[in-house]
Amino acid sequence: MTADVKEAAETAVTDYILAQETKDQLRFLTCGSVDDGKSTLIGRLLFDTKLIFEDQLAALERDSRKHGTVGEDIDLALLVDGLEAEREQGITIDVAYRFFATDKRKFIVADTPGHEQYTRNMATGASTADLAVLLVDARNGLLVQTRRHAFIASLLGIRHVVLAINKIDLVEYSQSRFDEIRKEFEVFANGFDFETLQAIPMSARFGDNVTARGQHMDWYAGPTLLEHLETVEVGEHALEAPFRFPVQWVNRPNLDFRGYSGTIASGRVSVGDELVVAGPAKMSRVKTIVGAGGEVPEAAAGEAVTITLEDEIDISRGDLLSTTAHRPDVADQFAAHVIWMSDEPLLPGRPYLLKIGTRTVTATVSEIKHKINVNTFEHVAGKTLELNEIAFCNFALSSAVPFDPYEANRSTGSFILIDRMSNATVGAGMIWFALRRASNIHWQALDVDKGARSEKLGQKPAVLWFTGLSGSGKSTIASIVEKKLHIDGRHTYTLDGDNVRHGLNKDLGFTDVDRVENIRRVGEVARLFTDAGLITLVSFISPFQSERQLARDLMGEGEFIEVFVDTPIEICRQRDPKGLYAKADRGEIKNFTGIDSPYEAPQTPEVHLKNVDREPEDIAEEVIAYLHERGFLGS
Questions:
Q1: Per mean pLDDT, which range of 97-101, 199-203, 363-367 is the poorest?
Q2: In the chain, what are the domain boundaries?
Q3: What is the enclosing helix (H) or strand (E) of 546?
Q4: Is residue 239 within 8 Å of 268, Cβ to Cβ?
């Protein structure tokens, strides 16, 4: 190879790389009801854009004979349905992402499942998409899942939709059938605020109107799917939005450098711009911006950078930087739409972890305002939220967080909910507005505090939280403990599960939602008693780990003492002092713990009392001994 040829080859490669880097990118998803042809459509796009290697094609031909659903033809859906379970069933059960490019644009496409039980997967794919390709089987028309996916796409901020009326070959390429479905969808989606809605008749299997025009639809004069994807103007919303920079990491390699690293969520930033930390409102100016290749004068949404400031101000992971002219909301309560993604229901009052941007706080749903029937869009009442249901809720957070309304900024207006016990993601939310009244309530400082009260009483305040099955002996043991403490001159109070239901909690039943609220209220009362310097004994079944953790979080360090009265259910049944187990067995009592409602036993209680063939007096002494050993009873 001569030097000129080598130089020309290197130039061509460099030009190609630069061309790819300067192309804009479109993220889109395919959705709709099961078997409408989503995977086949993506397979056709990959096949027609020459993005399948020879070995992949050979494997596809082999798999088509084994798993295919189109006779002797190549089953293009198998390019995407990569999981063995999917291939065996002929369906997609996970979100599959694929990349392809043309001369005009780069694409990332998410193939989402069609079955109702996998609606949460569809929401995941939609959360980052600019455009949705909603497939409809021309034979079946609009189905329930078609409407559900269209609604979720709208709710998640997708403003561009392609109505892909697929399998048109199976209705003899009928223009009247195409027009009928198109008009029905336009009426249905009238209130969804879609900026563009392009209906395209196609056959993904044979390629008609996917990347090229077929010979059977001369009546259709619109673009092919690929032509539309290459030319649709989705806008640079992230660039046009106000500057938002969630701090991912405080970069401190040495004493002479302090930078704040992260990915710009929206907007632009330049050296010299005045920025503010949302919440504390601490201001400074941008000193430098460091990108992957070194210092740059400016940066924009999507770029990972390190920003240094002219002033030394306290900034940590989870803080949000913005411009002083366009600041985000900051509140500890807001209203939001939630898509529930867990098999375990959402329970108002139960604490979850809420992750928004790079910040994580504890949060509870204080009220489910209404659930949304995604088939009729009616607002319906509900006390819980089940898998794949959508609701509009009020949230209360452990501390204020910065955010924007979701419709203004998808990045800073969205959050996920995490189960505190399993660390599983259980929900996704879109913030609608702040609940301003929360900022008007402040904790009143008092001259006589907990320390002064406990010193006066000669004891350390504590909460002895007795938990166990009905009939385990909780109340009996707690009563003996309190008697012993009273004789010893200690100041105590007992909150018993039955007693508080005569007054404080008389309005609550025994559903999971009511149980959560029952424990929340008692936890708050126990906290006040602790603030008074008392040793508080709480005797509740309290079956859920989450709620016992909520009560623990309300107390000061070391003040919450979980006492597990561990009695086998067989012995509890034998005792059954109130006849409750017998009634539950006959179906006269619903949601009875241990029968038709679960009990989550403590994993690491401070005091583990095994109550089998032992006298309550002896068991109570273990609790007294624990308090003495840890200094709760003074000298």
A1: 97-101
A2: 3-231, 238-323, 329-440, 450-629
A3: helix 545-554
A4: yes
